[in-house]
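Sorry to interrupt, but I need a hand with the structure work. Could you add the entry underneath, on a fresh line?
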Amino acid sequence: MINYFKKQLNINSLLLNAIYILNISLPMLIFAFFFLSKKYDESVDYMLVVSLSLFLTFSLSGNFRQTLIADNNIALCESVLIKRIFISLIIFFLSFFISFYILNITNFSIIFIGTLIPTIIWLNEINLILIEIKKDFKNLIFKFFFNYFSLFLLFLSFFYLQNKFLPIFIIFYTLLFYIQNFNFKLLGNFHYIKEIKFTFKVNYISSISLNLSSFLFKYEINYFLDKKNAALLFFCITVGSSLSTITFNSMGPKDFINSIKLSFQFILLLIVYATACIVTYFLVAKGIMFQDYTNNAAYILTISIIGGLIFTYSYILRQNIISKDQYRTQGFMLDVLYSVILIITVPLLFWIDKDYLAFSYFITSLCSFLIYYYYYKFIVKKL
C-alpha cells in the first residue's frame, strides 16, 4: 500500500491547490447556488452562457498550464497573462453577443455574470501559476480562509439577498477574487500584445474539441428537456463531474505525468468528494433537497456520481498518455474521438427514449474510459 501512493505533503502546495480548485470550480459553484435556491430558469440560462464562455476561453489554453509550470519561465507567464487580458475583452463581447442573439437569453444580468466568471478564472489561472513558480506564498493562509469564507457568504446571499442585488454581489465577489492575486505592475508591459501569434497545433484541436463538445452537450440537454428538468440533470452532472474537473485543472497536470499512482493530495480530494456526495445523496433521499422533483432525483444523482468516478480514472489514464512525447499526438486525437461521442450521445438517447437522457453523463464517461483504457493498456503499457 505504501508503494502504491506517492507521498506529497506540503502545506503551501495544499493551500495553493485549494485556491486552484476554487478558481476552476467557481462557475459550477455559482450554478449550484442558483439551482439550490430554486432559481431554475436562471440556473439553466447561466449554465449555457458559462459553457459558451468556457469554450471560447479555455479552447485557447491548449493544455498550456502544465507547459508553463514545467518551463518555470516567469517572463513567459507574464506575457501569456497580458495577452489573455487583451483577448478576454474580445471574448467577453463575443460571448455576450452570441448569448443574446443566438442562444436567445434575454436576462442581461445572467449573461454578464456567465460571461465574466469564466473570463476571470481564465486570467486568474496564470496569476496562480505565477504564484507557484515564484513561490510567492506570503498571505496564502489569509487568501485561503478569506476566499472560502467569502464563498460561504455568497452562498447565503442566494437565499437572503433580494434578486436585484444578487448580481452585484456576485460580480463584486468575482472581481475581488481576481484582484487579490493580480500584480498591477504588469499593466505597464502591454508591449507583449504586439507579440500575439495564433499558432494552430494539435493540442489546440484537442482543447477546442473538448470544450466545444462540452458546450454542445449542455445545449442539447437544454434543447430536449424543459428548464426545470434540465436544471436537475445539470446539477447532478455538476456534482458527478466535479472530481474530474478539479483533478484535470489543479493537481492532475503534475501528479499523473509519469504514473497513475495516487498522490496524497488526490486521496484527500477523493475523501472530501466522497463525503460531499454521501451528504448530498442523504439530503436528496430524505427529501430535504429536490422537494420540487420526483423520487428519481436520487437515482439520477447516483448514476452521475458513478459516471464521475469513471471519468476521473479515464482522465488519469489520459494524462499519463499525453505526458509521453511519443504518444501525445495520438492522445489528443483520442480527445477528438471522445468529443464526437459526447456530441452525438444526447440526440441518440432522446431518439431512443427521452428518459434515457438521465444516463447521458454515465454513458459518455464509460465511453471515455473505454477509449483511454484501451489505448493505455494495449499501446502505452505494452510498449
